[in-house]
């Protein structure tokens, strides 16, 4: 894959790129370890300027009729779809994900969410409720925007997550200051320019670049009303704590260690397909991955045999080749972390290595220095192993066996995390009963990973707060105002003359 060097990425506010006064860092192509672009970091004064730009824009944007906001954002959807492949190629170079994925999932699903919320608001999604208390008294409610909101993105689905946050934020009448991950920042200025081209007024969507210190300053900023964060649990707790100190609204989409339960009657072939999608899609760098695969003891042999056959269908290679379906890990730091877990699984946990491992995979021409790792499967795992308990965020599957379904459910729930869970079975009645007992906010039956715009998603326990997408996703970006109107002509009072 040819390596490109992109123009510098700047901060963006008042509807145009601005020169930042912070330091400059380089974004790296994970497939080659070569530099991609210089990225200019926002200083505190830059962040203040972006927040003030969003504050100035808020009144006019929130006063714009919802149908008018919808038309503008639907224009942005059109531009996103027209530029799908161009944006997807940038995402591939920035994240290391194959073009077969970024061109069919990342930009597409982000645009889907923007289109969904624009249409929802145009169709009355921001309407309140009216209740007649008595003949001459009414209560009505209004859904009002919050103000300036902060979106902090994750590195694994950059433009998708940026759209998942900005879409409901903007359609509801809020303004946003968005900070992309410093690991994959190239999409942010592209999206800001698309919004501007579509007619989004200056200051409504703004971008600041930088690492955790930039996010921390944004989160605690007195001019901010809400923080929406996607990332790991430990960082999310810090962000939520900082936001809570300022009584800010929060949405937290955090990590998981999700269970995939294969029931005794499941089709082995389909179960293996589901387990592979739940572990190796996007090189395993998906927060909802079903990395704890529970299978009945009697199915262990057939399942592992079929799995080993299908591991050959994982195809690393030239990331722009549509037949490639597996890329490198996103960064050198993350590469070291995932390798550390694989080595721990072998040397300390003493799990059985079914395939893969820490050895460097066969070099791919032109990408010998990239952060490539072998898709790895451990079997004979136990619940107490570190690789079973902690989120690895890489292409590492753990196989655990169980004796009966009740035991599997109990063990599946024995984690402080509760992001996702899934079941494979031919018995749909049983599937619903099992799903009802699994402690997770996102669940699937006989599939894994699909998250359409219409589906509200969010974690339980330490995996997050609130939901994104679906009708409920809009509620996270508005506040309620209730008004009681008395038309009787008499003011009720206890202070009357006896």
Brief write-up:
The chain is an alpha/beta fold and 498 residues long.
Which structural traits does this protein have?
single chain, 498 residues, alpha/beta, Aldehyde Dehydrogenase, Chain A, domain 1, Aldehyde Dehydrogenase, Chain A, domain 2, 2 domains, 7-stranded mixed sheet, 6-stranded mixed sheet, 22 strands, Ald_DH_N
Description:
The chain has 498 residues and is an alpha/beta fold. It has two domains: 11-254 and 463-482, Aldehyde Dehydrogenase, Chain A, domain 1, CATH 3.40.605; 259-445, 3-Layer(aba) Sandwich (Aldehyde Dehydrogenase, Chain A, domain 2), CATH 3.40.309. 38% of the residues lie in helices and 21% in strands. The protein contains 15 helices and 22 strands. It has helices spanning 44-63, 66-82, 84-95, 99-122, 158-171, 187-198, 212-219, 233-245, 268-280, 300-310, 332-347, 386-389, 405-412, 428-437, 470-475; strands at residues 11-13, 16-18, 24-29, 34-40, 130-134, 137-145, 148-152, 175-179, 205-207, 226-230, 249-253, 259-262, 292-296, 352-355, 376-379, 396-402, 417-418, 420-424, 442-445, 460-461, 464-465, 478-486.
Number of helices: 15
**Approximate shape:** globular
Order of strands, main sheet, comes to 14-15-16-13-12-18-19
For the termini, the CA-CA separation is 90 Å
Helical fraction equals 25-40%
Over all CA atoms, what is the radius of gyration? 24 Å
The CATH superfamily of the largest domain bears the name: Aldehyde Dehydrogenase, Chain A, domain 1
CATH topology of the largest domain: Aldehyde Dehydrogenase, Chain A, domain 1
